[in-house]
Amino acid sequence: MNPVLKLGDRILETGEILSLMSEYELLPLLVKEIIIDQAIAAAEIVCTPEEEKLACEQITQQHQGIETQPESFQKLKQMAIRSVKLEKLKEATWGGDINSYFFQRKPQLDKVIYSLITTSEIGIAQEIYFRIQEGEQSFADLAREYSQGPEAQTGGLVGPIDLQSLHPQLANILAKSQPHQLLPPVQINNLLVIVRLEKLLPAQLDHPLRQRLLNEKFNQWLQAQMREIPWKIQPSDN
Questions:
Q1: Mean pLDDT across the stretch 76-96?
Q2: 136-177 pLDDT, tens digit each
Q3: pLDDT band at 65 (very low <50, low <70, confident <90, very high)
Q4: Could you read off the pLDDT of 15-24 as tens digits, one per residue?
Q5: What are the boundaries of each domain within the chain?
Q6: What pTM value is reported for the model?
Q7: Which of 16, 26, 45, 189 counts the highest number of beta carbons within 10 A?
Q8: What is the mean pLDDT of residues 172-195?
Q9: What HEC string does the chain produce?
Q10: Residue 121 contacts by C-beta under 8 Å, 6 or more apart in sequence?
Q11: Residue 215 near residue 202 (C-beta atoms within 8 A)
Q12: Cα 41 versus chain centre, distance
């Protein structure tokens, strides 16, 4: 018998299931998981008994007090063990290159705290700039009075935020600025921007950032695999 999926009164056969997965763009997700399984197998990644035990204990704690069928709970444990294997695959494959990758990415990972005023009027932008420069009013007061963006609610103060999360032009300006240096108005898209770097927070390769960079390398590899490995729905010969 061909495998089928019963959904209420509806019975879906294999071909229909694949067709629906394609229609709802679920096939790429399936292909990704298959690629991951193949990579784990090819790298001969295994879990120690201690790692498996810890993964199962964590799943048990997460589902404590929740009714779960034994079969479903066993699948959850298998998924937890697979997650451990995936993290070991990332470490084995890219862990040795993370330091150099960090220094390559560091200019985008540094965080900044800065003050910002945005306006669409050149005359207002110039007046604000000279008022701040001459000390007539504080940046914060002028931001609350004139700024057209959400920064008006915080007196113009923004951050801490990664440089890579900012508009490239703004990120470039801040990266080249000195703390407390007020910059003349500059146009970014349809707005005039007055900006002052308050503080640069250099990125540190701590555990969360290391994990983030490992995930970046893994996702880059996975996307490349998706592009390079051809896949399509093919009629069965049966």
A1: 94
A2: 999 999 999 999 999 999 999 999 999 999 999 999 999 999
A3: low
A4: 788 888 888 8
A5: 1-44, 111-201
A6: 0.77
A7: 45
A8: 94
A9: CCCEEEECCEEEEHHHHHHHHHHCCCHHHHHHHHHHHHHHHHCCCCCCHHHHHHHHHHHHHHCCCCCCCHHHHHHHHHHHHHHHHHHHHHHHHHHHHHHHHHHHHHHHHCEEEEEEEEECCHHHHHHHHHHHHHCCCCHHHHHHHHCCCHHHHHCCEEEEEEHHHCCHHHHHHHHCCCCCCECCCEEECCEEEEEEEEEEECCCCCHHHHHHHHHHHHHHHHHHHHHHCCCCCCCCCC
A10: 192
A11: no
A12: 26
Calculate the alpha carbon distances from 51 to 56, 83, 90, 110 in Å. 9, 11, 16, 34
Looking up tokens 């451990």, which residue turns up? 84
Percent residues over pLDDT 70 in the chain: 92
Architecture of domain 111-201: Roll (3.10)
